[in-house]
Design brief:
Length: about 450
C-alpha cells in the first residue's frame, strides 16, 4: 500500500494542515485565557494546576482509545475523519460555554430557585476544560495518524513540519487577535468573544480538511490488506516498544521534553500577570480589590497573548525550514539544536523581568517549539507498522500527557509554596521558578536525543 501513495503537493499539504490550524487556535485560546477565567472564579495556583490535569488525563485515556478505534474504523467517510469532525463539533460547544461558566451558575440558581454553592461556576468551568481537552485529543491522535496513512515515507518530516506550521500560525492568530485590535483600533475584545472566535475556527477549519483530504480509499485498502487483531492495552504497549529499541529512547526524550514545554505553557500567563506586571494573588480577595488591579491584570493578559503570538510566529516561520534542514542533516541533530535554543530562552526569562526581554526570549523559544511539534513524530513514524498508526500515535501521546500530570501537580504545588508578602497584606508567588525546572528537563531531553540511533529513509 505504501508504494501507492503519491507525493503531496504544496496545496495538498496546506489543505491537510488547515484542520490543525483550527485545533491549535482553540487550544491556544484555552492555554492563554483559562488562567484568568478560573482565577476570577476562585482557583488558587494549586487548584489551577489540578484543573489543568484535564489535558493529560484525557490525553492518556482518550488518545490511545480513539487511536485504536480509528485503526479499525471503516466507513465511506474514512478511518480518521469521523473523529476529527466529532471532536471539533463538541469542542466548539464547550468553548462557547467555558467563559460563561459564572453566568451559567447564576442562571441555574435563578431558574430553579435554589442557592448554588459559590464554587459552582468554577466547577462548570473545570468540566468545560475537561470536555475541550478530551475533544482536542479525540481529533489530535487520528490527525497525527493521517500522516503515515496518506503521505509517503520520504515526506514524513515535511508533513509534520506543515502541521508545525499550522500550529504556529493558528497560535499566532489566536494570541494576536485581541492585542492587535486593542493597539490598532483601541477595541478590547472580551474573553467571551475570543472563545466564540476559537469555536468557529476549530469547527470551520477542521471541516475544510475533512472535505479536502480523501482518505476513505486508504481505509478500504487497509481493511483488505491488514487484519487488526483485538489486543489488550498491555499487549499493544509491549508491541509498541518492540518496534525498535530506539522507540523507547524517543518516548523518554518526549517525556522530558513535555515536562519542560508545559512548565511554560501552563504558567506563562500567570507569570506575565503576577511576575512581570506585579499583580498580587487575587483568588481570595474582594471584588473591590480585584477592580483595583483590573487594568494591570488585563495588561498582563494582553502581554501574555503578544508573547504567545511571537512564540508561535517564530514556530510558523521556521517550521518548514526545520523540515527541509532535517531531511538533509537528520532529525536528531536539528532537534538537539532546537532544544538548546529553548533552554537558553527559559534561562533568560527566569533572570530577565523586562517586557521587551521576555518577548524576545519567547521568540527564541519558538524555534524549539517548531521542532517539538514535528521532529519527534517524524522519527517515530518510520517505525510504525501499517494498520497500527492510530494505536501507535495514541500510545505515544502518553509520553506527552503523562509529563503534564507532573507539571500540574508537583510543579504547581512547588509554586504554591513560594508565596511571599505583598503590599497591604496580600501575597504573590514566584511563577518564574517553573522556567528553571523546564530548562533542566529540556536539557535531559537533549542528552537523550543525542543517544538515539536515527533510522534513515528506506
Amino acid at each position: 500500500m505504501e508504494n501507492q501513495l503519491k507525493k503531496f503537493s504544496t496545496v495538498q499539504f496546506l489543505n491537510f494542515c488547515l484542520g490543525f490550524f483550527g485545533l491549535q487556535f482553540a487550544w491556544q485560546m484555552r492555554i492563554i485565557l483559562s488562567g484568568p477565567v478560573t482565577e476570577h472564579l476562585g482557583a488558587t495556583p494549586f487548584l489551577y494546576g489540578l484543573i489543568w490535569l484535564a489535558g493529560p488525563f484525557t490525553g492518556m485515556v482518550v488518545q490511545p482509545l480513539v487511536g485504536a478505534l480509528s485503526d479499525k474504523t471503516v466507513s465511506p467517510f474514512g478511518r480518521r475523519r469521523p473523529y476529527l469532525l466529532a471532536g471539533a463539533v463538541i469542542a466548539a460547544v464547550a468553548l462557547l460555554v467555558f467563559p460563561n461558566s459564572g453566568r451559567l451558575a447564576m442562571l441555574i440558581q435563578r431558574t430553579f430557585g435554589v442557592e448554588v454553592p459559590i464554587w459552582t461556576g468554577l466547577l462548570i468551568a473545570a468540566l468545560m476544560i475537561w470536555v475541550i481537552d478530551a475533544c482536542v485529543n479525540v481529533a489530535q491522535g487520528p490527525y497525527r495518524a493521517l500522516v503515515p496513512d496518506v503521505v509517503p515515507e520520504e515526506q514524513y518530516s515535511i508533513a509534520n513540519s506543515y502541521i508545525s506550521l499550522a500550529i504556529g500560525l493558528g497560535s499566532v492568530v489566536a494570541a494576536g487577535a485581541a492585542p492587535i485590535l486593542k493597539m490598532v483600533f483601541g477595541y478590547q475584545m472580551s474573553i467571551r468573544a475570543q472563545f466564540v472566535m476559537a469555536a468557529l475556527a476549530f469547527l470551520l477549519a477542521m471541516s475544510w480538511t475533512c472535505i479536502k483530504i480523501k482518505e476513505h480509499k486508504i481505509a478500504k485498502a487497509v481493511e483488505e490488506e491488514v487484519k487488526v487483531e483485538e489486543k489488550s492495552f498491555l499487549t499493544a504497549l509491549k508491541e509498541f516498544f518492540c518496534m525498535s529499541p530506539e522507540v523507547g529512547k524517543i518516548c523518554t526524550m518526549q517525556f522530558f521534553t513535555w515536562i519542560g514545554t508545559m512548565c511554560m505553557m501552563i504558567f506563562f500567563t500567570q507569570y506575565c500577570v503576577h511576575t512581570i506586571y506585579n499583580v498580587p494573588d487575587l483568588t481570595t480577595v474582594s471584588s473591590g480589590v480585584k477592580m483595583m488591579y483590573q487594568a494591570e491584570t488585563l495588561a498582563g493578559t494582553n502581554f501574555s497573548s503578544i508573547c504567545f503570538a511571537i512564540f508561535n510566529l517564530i514556530c510558523f516561520l521556521v517550521a518548514i525550514p526545520i523540515g527541509i534542514v532535517s531531511e538533509k542533516f537528520g532529525n536528531k541533530k536539528v532537534h538537539i539544536f532546537s532544544l538548546i535554543t529553548m533552554i537558553l530562552a527559559y534561562i533568560g526569562m527566569f533572570f530577565c523581568k523586562k517586557v521587551v526581554e521576555v518577548a524576545f526570549f519567547m521568540g527564541v523559544a519558538g524555534i524549539g517549539w517548531a521542532s517539538i511539534c514535528a521532529l519527534p513524530f517524524a522519527m517515530l513514524s518510520k517505525y510504525i507498522k501499517k494498520g497500527t498508526e492510530g494505536s501507535v500515535m495514541g500510545i505515544f501521546n502518553i509520553f506527552i500527557a503523562g509529563p503534564q500530570v507532573f507539571v500540574c501537580t508537583i510543579v504547581a504545588w512547588m509554586i504554591s509554596k513560594t508565596g511571599f508578602a505583598y503590599a497591604q497584606g496580600l501575597i504573590n508567588y514566584h511563577w518564574e521558578d517553573a522556567f528553571l525546572i523546564g530548562a533542566l528537563c529540556l536539557m535531559i531531553a537533549a542528552l537523550i536525543t543525542n543517544s538515539i540511533n536515527e533510522k534513515t529513509n528506506a
